[in-house]
Amino acid sequence: MAAAVAGGVGPVVAEAAAPGAGAETKAEVGAGAETKAEVGAETKAEVGAEAELEAEVVPPPLPGLQLVQQGAEACVFRGRFLGREAVAKLRVPKRYRHPALEERLSRRRTAQEARALLRCRRAGIPAPAVYFVDHVTNCIYLEDIAGAVAVQDHIESVQRRGGDAGSLLPLSKKLGALLARLHDEDLIHGDLTTANVLLRPPVEKLDLVLIDFGLSFVSGLAEDKGVDLYVLEKAFLSVHAGVETVFETLLKTYAATSKKSGPVIKKLDEVRLRGRKRSMVG
Description:
Elements: H1 11-17, H2 21-55, E1 66-70, E2 74-81, E3 84-91, H3 99-122, E4 130-134, E5 139-143, E6 149-150, H4 151-160, H5 169-184, E7 187-188, E8 197-199, E9 208-210, E10 217-218, H6 222-239, H7 244-257, H8 261-281
Antiparallel strand pairs: 1-2, 2-3, 3-5, 4-5, 6-8, 7-10, 8-9
Helix pairs in contact: 5-7, 6-8
GO cellular component, one term: nucleus
Protein name: non-specific serine/threonine protein kinase
Keywords: ATP-binding, Hydrolase, Kinase, Nucleotide-binding, Nucleus, Phosphoprotein, Serine/threonine-protein kinase, Transferase, tRNA processing
């Protein structure tokens, strides 16, 4: 698969390289703020529709692709695309939306995800290569990270084997440095969890890859980066027991690596305080 990682192909590359990219970046920042508001407004409706979506059988975008994961936002297929092993991520239409609105939102979010992946790879941040973007079906064809293991599964495996938190500190340092690079590029992931970070084989090399940029956007605001870290912290501590020191090490590495970490860590503390107040009020 290493040979298949060369820069993406298809219309996404043409979009990203087109003149006026600076104006496009400003538009992405605005779109990011709009996307955050939309996500908050749609959450209740999506929760209600999730059970219905899981019951549906979503057909593959191309013959021969096999469904490997079906969620509320997208379905993931695996197979071959243009002679290469690939993953196809197909956005699931929301039936509770007006069709015109659904089409506009799906196209924009598909484009945002593809651009975020390309921006990562240009900055040297490990992410899957983009092979092709189909704007008709809102499907992205990506590099298949063969043999990769989610960080979530790796941590659970270490804990099942009786490993202590100390054995996970090298991994937390690598992840902290990776997120620092991501935020220094003003990229907000939007859904940071240990399930959305992969380890290439062999896992001992701690070769990390960021995936699932479906809720990503561009922002230089410390608030947005602080919320990104807060989402990861909540997911980290709720899924993995007894790893408080692991996340603390992650944050220390982030602060030492990022050129813009000061305001971000301050905002993270503010977001934590707001979260605690909400928990107390109920």
